[in-house]
Structure prediction request, 189 residues.
Amino acid sequence: MTLFSDEITVAGVRLELMRPSSPEALIDEEAFAHDEFLPYWAELWPAARALAEALPEVDGLRVVELGCGLGLPSLVAAAKGASVTATDWSPDAIALLRENASRNGLELRAEVRDWRESWDERFDLALAADVLYEERNVGPVLERVCELAPDALVALAARPYERAFLRLAEASGKRIEHVGKLVRLCEER
Prediction:
């Protein structure tokens, strides 16, 4: 994988990020055939930037990010004093996030995790950016963010299955607040 260095400032945090030069070159036909795996993680999506920009006060909070990809929200949360666990199902994403955290002098925990599987751990805030790109993600993403934290911020990206996610969240009793392209899911009403 060929990488390039990119310097960005988000929410007042200056970061040097190593990123794949050609995400398309990371497509693996065998991995796709097995679990429809595409290297979505390799792009710096606008929703990740929007979520990182919109983070609330996180100093001292335990924060988890689902489907972190390059981990921009996780890196910004760590820089702002959160204890962060960043997760993605791609080992390459997690390895690069660890490298980027180290490169920027940040501490966070980065783990290969599948949001379709339940966890025992709990957090103060769950984050997810642009993870509703496939219909099969709707239920598991909602289930995980509700299971993992009483408060969640989900950055939307005008994907086809976002409306289904919002309907399911509302039906589950979550309070939904729209903040621009973000949705905040709070404790049950």
